[in-house]
Design brief:
Length: about 180
């Protein structure tokens, strides 16, 4: 029974962490390159508008983002209690990639940059001020977002491999081997 609950928890973790990875990936390969060609003011206004949706606690976004943290934490607790050492290590590796490589940089770098932008009155700023802020913002935000993309993919990869190993382990007792 515990393995069934663990498998469900692992699948939910994979789903939520994959959705976060997809969001970060989408920003890295579509959104940021898409608005990169805008003027400094338009770039910052566009990013501020998109981030404003998140800052206003958009319910689906918040459910997925916070759900990914809760799911991977719950899965890790269950895994430590129910898995063997090598599978536990794989789970903890996925957890580390996710918490240290996705959530920590988000809290430490991306959110503070977003908050700086949210507090700016872009319509009152001179073009030179906009250019300086954009340069610092865009370079740093994109660096940390790419870092998050890489780590989110590595985390999901580890979780998928663990699911694969768990499914093999579940099915082993039902296999019959011919003895020659």
């Amino acid at each position: 029974m515990a393995l069934d609950i663990f498998a469900i928890s692992l699948i939910v973790s994979i789903l939520f962490c994959s959705l976060v990875a997809g969001l970060l990936f989408g920003f890295a390969v579509v959104v940021m390159p898409g608005i990169a060609g805008l003027s400094n003011r338009d770039f910052l206004i566009s990013f501020k508008q998109m981030d404003g949706i998140i800052q206003n606690n958009q319910p689906v976004f918040m459910s997925v983002w916070l759900g990914s943290i809760a799911a991977i934490m719950a899965t890790s607790i269950q895994g430590v209690q129910n898995l063997g050492a090598s599978q536990t290590n794989l789970l903890l590796l996925g957890l580390a990639f996710y918490l240290l490589g996705v959530q920590l940089p988000t809290a430490r770098f991306n959110i503070p940059l977003n908050n700086q932008l949210q507090n700016m009155d872009l319509m009152k700023m001179e073009e030179s001020e906009l250019a300086v802020f954009r340069s610092k913002f865009e370079t740093k935000w994109n660096f940390w977002n790419r870092f998050r993309v890489l780590n989110s993919i590595l985390s999901v990869k580890a979780l998928l491999f663990l699911l694969f190993l768990s499914l093999i382990h579940i099915s082993e007792p039902t296999r019959r081997y011919a003895i020659s």
